[in-house]
Amino acid sequence: MRNAFADELTKLAAADPRVVLLSGDIGNRLFDKLKAAAPDRFFNCG
């Protein structure tokens, strides 16, 4: 389920520059693709 969420969020971020991710310190590299595609819109708050 988490992988599906991360994949969909990455697709949304690629299509819409208004999409930003605030992460609560998820340490399993779940959002690596999003960080690579939009590093200026990924914020680790944890």
Helix content: 40-55%
Overall 3D form: globular
Q: Work out the oligomeric state of the chains in this entry.
A: single chain
Largest sheet: 2 strands, parallel
If you compute it from the alpha carbons, what radius of gyration comes out, rounded to the nearest whole angstrom? 10 Å
**Strand portion:** 5-15%
Question: What is the terminal-to-terminal distance?
Answer: 21 Å
Annotation field: number of helices? 2
Based on the model shown, name its key terms.
alpha+beta; 46 residues; 2 strands; 2 helices
Describe what you observe in this structure.
The protein is of the alpha+beta class. It has one domain. The protein is about 45% helix and about 15% strand. The chain has 2 helices and 2 strands, in the order αβαβ. The protein has helices spanning about 1-15, 30-35, and strands at about 20-25, 40-45. The protein has a two-stranded parallel sheet. The longest helix is centred in the N-terminal third of the chain and has 14 residues, at about 1-15.
What's the topology here?
Layout: H1 2-15, E1 21-23, H2 32-37, E2 42-44
Parallel strand pairs: 1-2
Q: What would you say about this model in short?
A:
The protein is an alpha+beta fold.
